[in-house]
Recover the amino acids of this structure.
């Protein structure tokens, strides 16, 4: 079975984007689409980036474990809030920390905000960064406007039918890219 890691990007006090990460974990498990885990950057609390992992002389066990989780994942869902039109430093930090681990990795992006635009302003800058490190960004996106009106604190969708319909199209696109990569890697 394929494995998806959900990267919950916010380390902010009172964060709301984590609700979306919790939702995707439940959605993937309920529909038996893949094995899944949440990589919560708030739990890792990595120090500010000072060098890529491959150049570090004494990386921490947490950094090595995180790198292995990214490398061994068949696909990634990044859930990121929008902060002033960009994505959080915690996310940029882990993107820059790794390099080969992101190579051709299928990555789907879900943006989140408290406002009406659902964090869509962050898409361009995040996609550009991921392209530069040669990750494979999936064309489907999952913006979440007014996150508090969409999910409760446990990641339950307040309009489950409509949210699940959107999530299915989003996750199906990621799964398609994961399968395409698997087939291309096998040949």
């Amino acid at each position: 079975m394929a494995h998806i890691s959900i990267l919950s990007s916010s380390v902010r006090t009172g964060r709301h984007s984590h609700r979306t990460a919790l939702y995707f974990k439940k959605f993937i498990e309920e529909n038996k689409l893949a094995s899944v885990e949440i990589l919560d950057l708030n739990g890792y609390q990595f120090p500010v980036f000072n060098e890529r992992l491959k150049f570090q002389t004494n990386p921490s066990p947490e950094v090595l474990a995180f790198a292995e989780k990214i490398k061994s994942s068949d696909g990634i869902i990044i859930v990121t809030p929008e902060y002033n039109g960009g994505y959080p430093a915690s996310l940029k930090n882990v993107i820059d920390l790794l390099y080969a681990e992101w190579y051709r990795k299928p990555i789907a992006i879900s943006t989140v905000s408290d406002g009406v635009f659902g964090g869509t302003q962050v898409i361009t800058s995040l996609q550009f960064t991921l392209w530069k490190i040669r990750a494979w960004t999936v064309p489907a996106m999952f913006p979440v406007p007014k996150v508090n009106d969409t999910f409760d604190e446990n990641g339950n969708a307040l309009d489950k039918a409509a949210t699940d319909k959107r999530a299915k199209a989003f996750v199906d696109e990621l799964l398609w890219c994961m399968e395409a990569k698997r087939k291309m890697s096998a040949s």
The chain has one domain: 3-186.
